[in-house]
């Protein structure tokens, strides 16, 4: 069974309907703001960045609600924690032993 981490800490991508200007980034706790268009949803804004815990996530979502932007999605971005694998270096290390 996989263990689920509910700490909220991590990198998130939050998408809302409508456009917001990048100058709002400070108010949204330094999140990167990207605007675009989707066929189904029309104009969209995506907030991407690190969130320290669930309280910060809830605070950010409350700000989105305060300015009446419909929430489309909230995704936690999985960070790949694997070591970089270099086959050539691995073989060199094996041959040197």
Layout of helices and strands, plus pairs?
Layout: E1 10-17, E2 32-38, E3 42-51, H1 54-66, E4 71-77, H2 87-96
Antiparallel strand pairs: 1-3, 1-4, 2-3
Describe this structure in words.
This protein has about 100 residues and is α+β, with helices and mostly antiparallel strands. The protein has a single domain (about 10-95), classed as 2-Layer Sandwich (Alpha-Beta Plaits), CATH 3.30.70. It has helices at about 55-65, 85-95; strands spanning about 10-15, 30-40, 40-50, 70-75. Strands 2-3-1-4 form a 4-stranded antiparallel sheet, covered by helices on one side. Strand 2 (about 30-40) and strand 3 form a beta hairpin. The radius of gyration is 19 Å and the shape is globular. The model is unreliable at about 80-90 (pLDDT under 50).
* Cα Rg: 19 Å
* Residue share in β-strands: 25-35%
SS summary, helix count: 2
Question: What is the number of strand segments?
Answer: 4
Largest sheet: 4 strands, antiparallel
CATH domain topology: Alpha-Beta Plaits
Order of helices and strands: EEEHEH
Question: What fraction, in percent, of the residue positions are helical?
Answer: 10-25%
Unreliable stretches: 82-91
Annotation keywords:
97 residues; alpha+beta; globular; Alpha-Beta Plaits; 4-stranded antiparallel beta sheet
Summarize the structure.
This protein has 97 residues and is α+β, with helices and mostly antiparallel strands. It contains two helices and four strands, in the order βββαβα.
């Amino acid at each position: 069974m996989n263990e689920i981490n509910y700490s909220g800490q991590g990198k998130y991508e939050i998408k809302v309907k409508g456009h917001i200007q990048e100058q709002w980034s400070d108010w949204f706790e330094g999140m990167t703001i990207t605007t675009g268009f989707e066929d189904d949803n029309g104009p969209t804004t995506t907030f991407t960045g690190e969130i320290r815990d669930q309280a910060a996530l809830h605070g950010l979502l409350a700000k989105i609600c305060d300015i009446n932007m419909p929430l489309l999605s909230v995704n936690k971005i999985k960070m790949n924690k694997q070591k970089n694998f270099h086959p050539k270096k691995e073989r060199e290390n094996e041959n040197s032993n």
